[in-house]
## 1
Amino acid sequence: VTVPEGNGGAWRIRTFDETAQEWVDRETQYLDNNYYCYIAYGEKLKIESTGFINPSEDLKIIINGTEKTFDGSGGNVLKIFETEKLTENITVSSVEAVPVYFDITTSSNAGGKVTPSFQTLRASEYSIAFTPDPGYRISAISKNGSPVTVTDESGMTITETAQENVNYEVAFVK
């Protein structure tokens, strides 16, 4: 098994101990900017990336020439490869952190202002302000077609964490 150094993180190479019925970390050797671990064919193998996963990014990894993208939103340990029975050499040749952006779109009728549409990174906090013009009030707000409770008809701000593309619509009335 060969994995590259880089991206500020660490690799955990593990095999399954059938007697103890648990995963066991394997010792690696470092040479020429790569970590190597010698594992016999037939063993159950798992490779994990630890410590450098930013929730706003995915990891693009090339394993034995095949590109795979892994969702980094789940936390600090990411399983990138697992096999029940090792049958070939495994080489991780490239690791790239890829930012994930979501579109936050807004629209309204006449009678007020709403924060303009924008993009934001996954897991980032964002705010949308709904501000009626003088003599108007907020009648209704929807998020992706579902109603949002209007807590203050004279103007309000919604603050959320980006987890998907979102469309806000607001209706102002006199």
## 2
Amino acid sequence: LQFVGGLMLTPFVTRLLGPADYGMVTTSMIIMQAVFQVAGLSLATGLQRSYAHLGRENARRLLGFAVVTTLAITLLLDLTGPLWVHAFGLSDYGGASRFAVWWGGASAIATAQTSLLRSEDKLAGYAILMALQSVLADAAGLAICLYLDASATLFVAGKLAATALGAVVGLGYI
């Protein structure tokens, strides 16, 4: 779903944003993936193992730990952004790159939640959360650009908003 949705929206996004802004979007996606890996600490996989071997309550505690540590690491990466942003070929930190950091953190939290939802066989919550952080996130970014201003910053902000909403909604299913 995520791959197909992204594939279908890419032509619209590239034409709407233009080469420079789309280049910033792809750089932001790389930053998001790096933050996702670092801040997530692979706890999503650990959640499923914890659920299988130690039970539901231990997995829920691990999810709480995952949320707190992911937020702390994401905040640290945001505060130190000006020190490392040059590694991604950017001259300054802010706008799309800053939103990408928080998008990566929100994605790590949402992915940890989907692991627990999958373990608990809560299909409705899992499906809603996956939709919000994939196809609907792309659609939110595109919609914001259509209605406000076509920029990389707003596109990434839309993806962050949908993913963060998914993480908040996901808590209701846990």
